[in-house]
Design goal:
The structure is a single chain. The protein is of the alpha/beta class. The chain has a single domain, classed as Rossmann fold (3-Layer(aba) Sandwich), CATH 3.40.50. The chain has eight helices and eleven strands. A seven-stranded parallel β-sheet has the order 3-2-1-4-6-7-11, with helices on both faces. Strand 1, helix 1 and strand 2 form a beta-alpha-beta unit. It is globular. The N and C termini lie far apart (47 Å). Pfam families: adh_short (PF00106). InterPro entries: KR_dom, NAD(P)-bd_dom_sf, Sc_DH/Rdtase_CS, SDR_fam.
């Protein structure tokens, strides 16, 4: 896997916008056999599709979504031939810890944790049998730097990273490498798609409004999705990819500060960057 031009078969979830779309375009241009997913591929216009890329249905919020995708991959004859799985699709969620609906938290974990884990399990037998493969989890720097009113999202991405870290130890003897890529602020327009929860008359209204204003501004000024895609491609083609990659939000500086500063001070810095006084 030392050359992204060698016809790798790559499955990218959520490849119709943001980081996923940038990845699909870059990998297709490099000659990879790219398959990607959308909740409803039939609604995609020709301009939404990258030539030569296969678009398959997948809704990770549905408990059987990954297994149904595996059935489609089996019908196409590629389930056991996936060289690279990039678990990119996910939901961004915000809301006060006290007010987050239980069903919203459950959906978020199905989408951001359980779905990617199950899909990884389904492609692993083929990778392990061929003794080669890459699984890349697209996380978030909020897993490393939790933020007020993003508790569910931060927790889900932290869970995904921990799954990946342990799985890497299990799978590396078989030539299968698992990596996590944690983007910071990325200019993908994800703020427009974020699910938001805030009760009428909530005592957290001012705090949430301030946080979201700063969060959206940071994302608008963030790095382009193509830079994250390039980092992920580096992990694909490396003979021994790193366990962890961080990109955006002036990384690796925040991680250096995290090691050097008391945890309470780091939390105050993260809050202050989003307009919150703690």
């Amino acid at each position: 896997m030392n050359d992204a031009h060698n016809g790798l078969t790559v499955l990218v979830t959520g490849g119709t916008s943001g980081i996923g779309k940038a990845l699909v375009e870059a990998l297709a241009a490099k000659g990879c056999h790219v398959l990607t997913t959308s909740r409803d591929p039939h609604r995609l216009s020709p301009t939404d599709r990258v030539p030569g890329v296969s678009y398959l249905p997948l809704d990770l919020a549905e408990p059987d979504g990954p297994d149904r995708l595996a059935e489609d991959l089996e019908r196409l004859g590629v389930l056991g031939e996936i060289d690279v799985l990039i678990n990119n699709a996910g939901e961004s969620q915000s809301g006060p810890f006290e007010e987050l609906p239980a069903e919203a938290i459950e959906r978020l974990f199905r989408t951001n944790v359980f779905g990617p884990v199950r899909l990884s399990q389904l492609v692993l037998p083929g990778m392990r049998a061929r003794r080669t493969g890459r699984i890349i989890m697209v996380g978030s720097m909020l897993a490393s730097f939790p933020l007020a009113h993003r508790s569910s999202y931060s927790a889900a991405k932290a869970a995904l990273r921990t799954f990946a870290t342990a799985a890497r130890q299990e799978l590396s003897p078989f030539g299968v490498w698992v990596s996590v890529v944690e983007p910071g602020s990325i200019a993908t327009g994800i703020g427009l798609r974020r699910t938001k929860y805030l009760e009428d008359g909530s005592p957290y209204t001012d705090d949430v409004t301030t946080m979201l204003e700063h969060l959206d501004a940071n994302e608008r000024g963030g790095i382009p999705a193509e830079k994250v895609a390039a980092t992920i491609i580096d992990a694909i083609v490396s003979p021994r990819p790193r366990e962890f990659y961080a990109v955006g939000s002036r990384a690796p500086l925040p991680f250096l500060l995290k090691r050097a500063l008391p945890r309470s001070l780091m939390s105050k810095i993260v809050a202050a960057q989003h307009g919150l006084k703690r």
